[in-house]
Design brief:
Blueprint: E1 9-13, H1 16-30, E2 34-38, H2 42-49, E3 55-58, H3 63-66, H4 69-72, E4 77-80, H5 98-106, E5 118-121
Parallel strand pairs: 1-2, 1-3, 3-4, 4-5
Length: about 130
């Protein structure tokens, strides 16, 4: 983060544009560098999760089919950005998009980090 306290963030993606875009957004908004890894490379995913990230943002049709994210990143907040909603009203009350991601990363300090992983379902709205 900009204040020097870096909380590891890992972004697992199927589509590089989404993964790199979220990483760029986090870097611009709050100064966080994220490790961006294709979910199609199991060894790279396991290496990235071995650093003990505070937040794991993932985009996958079924990430738990290949990896047990709750075991590989037991203390991380898991944010699923796989679903997409259209413009207009939010269809689900838990859908917050990029702001929810930024808040989860900000809240991931070692002092406030949960003892066990919790999963946050985020619906990413298209921009433009």
């Amino acid at each position: 983060m900009a204040n020097g306290t870096q909380h590891p963030v890992v972004i697992l993606y199927e589509h590089a544009l989404l993964g790199e875009g979220i990483a760029k957004y986090l870097r611009a908004q709050i100064g966080v560098e994220a490790m961006v890894v294709s979910i199609r490379h199991p060894e790279a995913v396991e290496s990235a999760l071995a650093v003990g990230p505070s937040v794991v943002i993932f985009e996958s049709s079924d990430p738990f089919e290949q990896f047990d994210l709750t075991t590989l990143a037991p203390h991380a907040v898991l944010i699923d950005v796989s679903a997409v909603i259209t413009r207009g009203s939010v269809v689900a009350p838990c859908a917050a998009g990029l702001e929810q991601i930024v808040q989860a990363v900000r809240d991931s300090s070692p002092v406030t980090r949960p003892a066990r992983a919790r999963r946050v379902r985020t619906l990413a709205a298209p921009t433009g």
